[in-house]
């Protein structure tokens, strides 16, 4: 497989999007859990749901953007 293949670019986009989305989701989930006073161990669940949701959505969009730009050469 070529080094700059379309699949490699899309995979890298999804990975970077997932990492950035997960980090932002963890920070935002922690903020909301404290703000809304989520009780006890439900904070961990709430932060985890927010982290995974943000990682999935941001990874999806960054992967889609990489796929759109895959055919363009600058």
UniProtKB/TrEMBL annotation:
Coiled-coil regions listed: none
Pfam families: Romo1
InterPro entries: Romo1/Mgr2
Keyword Chloroplast among UniProt keywords: no
Subcellular location: Membrane
Origin superkingdom: Eukaryota
Keywords: Membrane, Transmembrane, Transmembrane helix
Transmembrane segments: 12-31, 51-70
Family per record: Belongs to the MGR2 family.
Name of the molecule in the record: Reactive oxygen species modulator 1
Protein's organism: Hibiscus sabdariffa
Organism classification: Eukaryota, Viridiplantae, Streptophyta, Embryophyta, Tracheophyta
């Amino acid at each position: 497989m070529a080094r700059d293949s379309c699949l490699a670019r899309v995979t890298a986009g999804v990975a970077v999007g997932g990492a950035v989305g997960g980090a932002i989701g963890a920070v935002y989930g922690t903020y909301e859990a404290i703000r809304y006073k989520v009780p006890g161990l439900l904070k961990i669940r709430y932060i985890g749901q927010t982290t995974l949701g943000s990682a999935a959505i941001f990874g999806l969009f960054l992967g889609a953007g990489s796929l759109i730009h895959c055919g363009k050469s600058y």
